[in-house]
Task: inverse folding
């Protein structure tokens, strides 16, 4: 289902869902970083899975990607992608370093980025549970820093087991002196996607 085939109820519900998730993620990250963080969701749309790599590579060639499996009432995969150069700034904030100090992904940096990914993905999963009553549990995060094509090649077999559509949540994270954009792809299997869309419609209609 392409986004332009979503009905108005579903589009409105997706936007509200995105706002709830972003608010929760911003609160959790602000507590973790000890700084005020805001997260805006410029768009949340449905996209074909086969177009995901192309959409990412338009903006960055090397990325940091946090990958998680989702279990429960929603069976899905989550892929959170940051441009490599920008994510260093986020790590500087998290690790109380001077901006520009982080230059590589050591073990400590990888652990920190996994935690950030876990916070963001969990915030949106909790929003889904709160907004439409579908509960899910994420796996331990996996992290890769590589070329976009290599990242998607690694996860392609698992994504092929999911449905043909992904929910793309654009995140724009802002701190006092930095700004970081990321893409979160939630890729449910066919049954889970049908549940999500039905629940979105029913929730907005007040059913």
Result:
């Amino acid at each position: 289902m392409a986004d332009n085939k979503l009905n108005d109820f579903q589009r409105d519900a997706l936007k509200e869902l995105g706002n709830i998730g972003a608010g929760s993620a911003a609160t959790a990250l602000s507590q973790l970083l000890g700084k005020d963080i805001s997260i805006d969701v410029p768009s949340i749309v449905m996209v074909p899975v086969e177009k995901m790599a192309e959409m990412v590579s338009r903006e960055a060639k090397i990325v940091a990607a946090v990958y998680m499996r989702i279990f429960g009432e929603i069976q899905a995969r989550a892929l959170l992608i940051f441009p490599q150069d920008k994510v260093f700034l986020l790590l500087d904030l998290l690790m109380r370093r001077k901006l520009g100090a982080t230059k590589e992904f050591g073990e400590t940096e990888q652990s920190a980025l996994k935690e950030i990914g876990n916070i963001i993905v969990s915030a949106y999963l909790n929003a889904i549970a709160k907004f439409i009553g579908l509960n899910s549990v994420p796996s331990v995060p996996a992290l890769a820093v590589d070329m976009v094509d290599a990242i998607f090649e690694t996860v392609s077999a698992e994504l092929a087991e999911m449905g043909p559509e992904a929910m793309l949540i654009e995140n724009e994270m802002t701190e006092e002196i930095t700004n970081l954009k990321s893409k979160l792809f939630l890729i449910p299997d066919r049954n889970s996607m049908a549940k999500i869309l039905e629940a979105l419609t029913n929730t907005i209609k007040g059913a």
